[in-house]
Amino acid sequence: MNNQTGFRTVLLLLCVLIIGGFLRFPFITMLPLGYDEAIWGNVARNLIDLGTYTRSIWTYPVFKDHPPVHIYQISLSFMMTGVSVMSLRLPSVLGSLVLVIIFFLIYVQLDLPKGSLGAFLVGLGVASTPYGINMALHAHVEISVLLYGSLALLITLRTGTETHWYTLLLVGGLIAFSVFSKFIGVFFLVPVLLVLCVGWRKSGKVSVNPIHFFTSGMFLLVLTGILLGTVVINLDLASRIPTGLWTYYQGIAAKFLDVILPIEVDQAPWRTMSLGKFINRLHRYFFPGFALGIVAGIISLGQLIFFRLSGKSNVGLVRVLITEQYLFLGIMTCLVVLCCMSGATRSMDYAFTFIPFLYVVLISVFTRLVMDWSNTSMHRGWTTSSRVITLLALSSYFIMIGFGLVVGKPWEIISKKMQFPLIAASLREITGPNDYVIIDPYGPEISFLAERPYDILYPCDSIEEIIRRLTDARAVVLEQRDLPNLTTAEMGAFKQYLNDHFDLVRAIDDYSVYLQKKKRSRKARIMRDLNASKVTDSLKGNPSQFFGK
What we know:
Strand 4 (502-508) and strand 5 (511-516) form a beta hairpin. The termini are far apart. The protein has helices at residues 3-22, 35-49, 69-81, 85-109, 115-128, 130-136, 142-159, 165-179, 189-198, 210-234, 245-260, 275-285, 289-310, 315-339, 347-351, 355-371, 381-407, 420-430, 443-450, 463-470, 488-501, 522-541, 544-547; strands at residues 437-440, 454-455, 475-479, 502-508, 511-516. It has a five-stranded mixed beta sheet. It is mainly alpha-helical. It is 64% helix and 4% strand.
């Protein structure tokens, strides 16, 4: 790469990073908190402030949902910039911009058509995917999964079968961080080990080395376990979780196997979703990249079949077509596997880990079809036509992106969530820093903003359990609706309990904020529980005795 080409590549990369930053940073604190990101924020803050690796006042370990790497990133952000919504989202926003660089370089490394210009278009797609913007602005863990996995793949592509031990160490560490951000990171082991086995050279030479494949694979797998243990022990996680380190490892392993080898497949949402609805969601969430990528993959497959059947020999083009098909068919396989995973309750998020690779196929195919005209020897008019078509294609893409920002849910705003900061401010006024509160149904979001330990009522299945949780609560925030898991009689008892023990402090649109009337001694709390038990016993016998006819 000469100096002029290198300068052009850096300039294109800077341009696409500026576009990506413009689509993210102005909105980083604008959107209301999401449920998942609020949970990770609460856990990360607990690690710093309380030394507790739990999601709330409950001793509920987070390995029931996710491994720790993503949460450690947020904790590091909190330590450096303070606890805030911006700090919570900053690692994901920065990670999504690093992804732009990674996929820019992956396109160049694969030696696909038009080099740095094609890489610029890939980076543009990754930077402007509407649902990808949504995930970055809501601190989704899939950003971390894709970040570490794709970086491991990029490094492996650059080294091939000549990987040194220190490169293997780096690649293994990145795979480990991907897996322990979320279990679906294990998918990246397949392409990494494939490249280590087959090798990768821009010259087209392929060197199959099964021994290297086996030794590298074993090294990576062993390293993954060692690295996890090192990270966990060095961060003193054993003293931060309520269940002990061995139980933590067991929980990690059980959850991992449950996701990779699903037992209760009928719980997956895809089993009750028609194929048409599934494809529609993929198209809508990842508009316009998904539909265009499918078209590009089919065109490439058709071209490859034509070249094979016709016997034409164009080594360079066939090699590009084979590369495109590795990517395209691999993506389709991963999406099908995701459909069958019982753990995929948010599988549109999971699908994001493969969509940027679809952009690589998309740009490779369409730049080859459109811009190769400028290389023909017919006349110079083709060069001008190619530039005009490229300009029109880019303009059309930005028009579609504008439409995608409307239909693709990048900045979805739920009106009731706009009241969360006001509710959080009310809780800070009436409670102390260590007082825990009951918040239903948006406990993680409001508690993160209020900086209070929290509990939630749902899914309680009895009035006894609800009263037990309410006993030590300093305040209660309830959405003004009936709890769906209570019967009419139990709902009446619940409202009566609130009237007896809590004062309604204020109503904020759809929410009511209650404050406990006064602190009671432990003996008084025991007596209250006994009285609550008597109430529920009377309800079981004859509810009309309590509520009247």
